[in-house]
Specification:
213 residues, mainly alpha, Rhomboid-like fold, 9 helices, 69% helix, globular, transmembrane
């Protein structure tokens, strides 16, 4: 790969900064409120009431505003449970998102990201138990992981396709088991699964544009 091609491949597209900003702004505001720098420590719970994914809203709970039960399928993905949750997800976003956005183009990448956010919420709605709210970008990130794995699987040489497919998936399963154990069961694995499936399906339709020589 030439130096120019390497530079192009390593460029961080604007779409990632947009997603990062949409996640950063609420977390900065809430982090400052948590520390008493402004507002009230109650802000975080209030924002969760309006923006988190609440399974009860799909049943008989009363919404705080019109269409909350629809908007929450996307809004939850831009809220986080604290600075470490935010930081880990954003590092993963740039790690997976940079090569994918460069391959797909920014519009296709944003479509993939949106589909994975929605799929993560759908997975939580269908498989989750109880009434606990859910926030975080991890559903979308597992969708990016699915698209990344699919890309490498399709590009793998003959004889190594199975390895390129199953080893990363087994790694993701092991990661979820480890996180579930270390977090005492407070892991929305349903969101991860839903995001992964949605990301894989979206990647099938969002193939990168053909490149001319």
């Amino acid at each position: 790969m030439s130096g120019q091609a390497h530079k192009r491949a390593a460029r961080v597209p604007l779409a990632l900064y947009v997603i990062f900003g949409l996640c950063l702004i609420p977390e900065l505001v809430l982090m400052g409120a948590d520390k008493g720098l402004w507002g009230s420590p109650l802000w975080r719970n209030l924002v969760y009431q309006y923006g988190a994914f609440w399974p009860g809203l799909l049943d008989n709970w009363r919404a705080n505003y019109p269409l909350q039960s629809v908007i929450m399928f996307l809004s939850y993905g831009f809220l986080h449970a604290g600075v470490w949750h935010f930081a880990l997800n954003m590092m993963t976003l740039f790690s997976l998102g940079t090569p994918l956005a460069n391959d797909l183009g920014q519009r296709r990448f944003l479509a993939l990201y949106a589909a994975a956010i929605f799929g993560g919420a759908l997975g939580y709605a269908l498989l989750g138990q109880g009434s606990q709210p859910m926030v975080g970008a991890s559903g979308a990130l597992f969708g990016l992981a699915a698209a990344f794995i699919r890309r490498d699987w399709r590009a793998a040489p003959e004889g190594k396709a199975a390895q390129a497919l199953f080893l990363p998936i087994l790694g993701l399963i092991a990661l979820n088991v480890l996180m579930y154990w270390t977090m005492g069961g407070r892991l929305a694995w349903q969101t991860h699964l839903g995001g992964f499936i949605a990301g894989w399906m979206a990647a099938v339709f969002l193939a990168p544009p053909a490149r001319s020589d």
